[in-house]
Amino acid sequence: MASFTSLGVGSNLPLSTLLANLETAEKGRLTPISTQQSSFSAKLTAYGTLKSSLEKFQTANTALNDASLFKSTTATSNSTDLTVSTTAGAAAGTYKINVTQLAQAQSVRTTANVTDSKAAQGNSNEERTLIIKQDSKEKPLEIKLTKDQTSLEGIRDAINNANGGVSASIVKLKDNDFQLVLTSSETGTANKMSISVSGDETLNQFISFNNPDVTGSGVEQIVEAKDAELSVNGINIVRSSNTITDAPQGVTLNLNKITSDVTVTVSKSNDKATTAIKSWVDAYNSLVDTIGSVTKYTAVDAGTDAQNTSNGALLGDSAVRTIQTGIRAQFTDVGNGGNFQTLSQIGITQDPATGKLKIDDAKLKTALTDKSVDVQQLLVGDTKTTGITTKIATQVKGYLADDGIIDSAQDSINSTLKKLTKQYLSVSQSIEDTMARYKAQFTQLDTMMSQLNNTSSYLSQQFESMSSSS
Question: What is residue 371's three-state secondary structure?
């Protein structure tokens, strides 16, 4: 059987064109599937965008769902020698402060002349225990030392590696004269040190400090442990640290120098609450924009068969409607016993045309200044069942849950896409089989036509030859 490199050569017919046209027609069977795949993929992407926007709103809602925002204060000091900050609940007022003593950490040093910082200072025992006691610690710091760790460097490294509230360093006074310095990591008299060594009397005599079992001492104090001493509105206060967080409560005093007649003023502040409310409104409006984008509808002319291609992928989607109406419902379904029952009463209104929220800054400021507790009740409530942000938090958490409305919709779309992929592959295989059959039939036709043409030519030649002979 003759073979041809191109269909139609043997039959002199446009078989290649016919085959290409048939293939185009067959592949048309894939178009509805591809269209559905594109549509569901667009929906999946749209749900991802919606989920991201909802998560951002959830973050802003969680930040606003904090009662302490409405108890915020700010503090100022008229001196850099004493700086100040506050936490929620600090009482507003003016405080006169005098600092007569700063807290400081104890520091001690060895007194023996040590010519080599690597040389052992203990006896030949294999092991001994360095013990450092501080009243502020329930248990003493106990460090096992080998005989190779009795040098200044060995003791220093062992103490620093223990991270037990004491640090150690080596000071070189001059050539061949070294000292070991131990410093408490924390200030105050409760952190002063007592140092001893068990299992090595030589090392015990070398490094003992404030140890009643040792006569004399190889260690001397170079910085005394002291507590901070100050007065607040005439009340004398003693603390182990220069950072004082409870005098008065909610106010943190940072003592930098001994000073007198410092005035600290604590005032109520609406800044944190205002910022949180504005961020919440911005996040909600961004969510509204996202919903508007994924459900966008563009009207078409009468008689047009298809919808506009710029329509949102989730146009008419029930899950989106559920989320949108569910959140909006919480703006009016308040149910608390405060003076404010609606957002509009504190200066937050909803544009009926766009659905977005907008803030009347002056009205919000007045509400926060005059009735911050009522604003808190409206927005936060009891943090369990009442309060706009409390109820929204529960609702949005459900929307974003693993088995929530968005996750379920995405799972359904993914399942559909898997089915469409399987269907696409099946139809593609069917098209390939059909085209292979067409090609085989066309090739057979081409071969047969070629043979018939050859036979026709041969017979014509024979007839012509017979006519010439006659």
Answer: coil
Tell me whether residue 457 is in a domain.
Answer: no
> Which neighbouring-strand residues pair with 99?
230, 259
Rounded Cα gap, residues 251 and 244, in angstroms? 8
| Distance set, CA 415 to CA 96, 235, 411, 419, 424 (Å) | 70, 72, 6, 6, 14
Give the list of residues 6+ apart from residue 289 with CB closer than 8 angstroms, or none: none
pLDDT of residue 249: 87
Residue 67 and residue 187 share a domain: no
pLDDT of 25-80, one tens digit each? 888 888 888 888 888 898 899 999 999 999 999 999 999 999 999 988 899 999 99
The pLDDT of residue 361 is above 80: yes
Q: Are residues 258 and 316 in the same domain?
A: no
Beta carbons within 10 angstroms of residue 53's beta carbon? 20
Q: How far is CA 278 from the centre of its chain?
A: 21
**The last residue of a domain, from among 204, 223, 242:** 223
Helix and strand counts by DSSP (H, E) for the chain: 10, 17
What is the amino acid identity at position 77? S
Number of domains in the chain: 3
- Do residues 236 and 229 touch, judged by C-beta distance below 8 A? yes
Contact predicate 247/256, CB 8 Å? no
Return phi, psi of residue 108, to 5°.
-130, 160
- Asked whether residue 337 falls in the same domain as residue 284, the answer is yes
Query: At 206, which amino acid appears?
Result: F
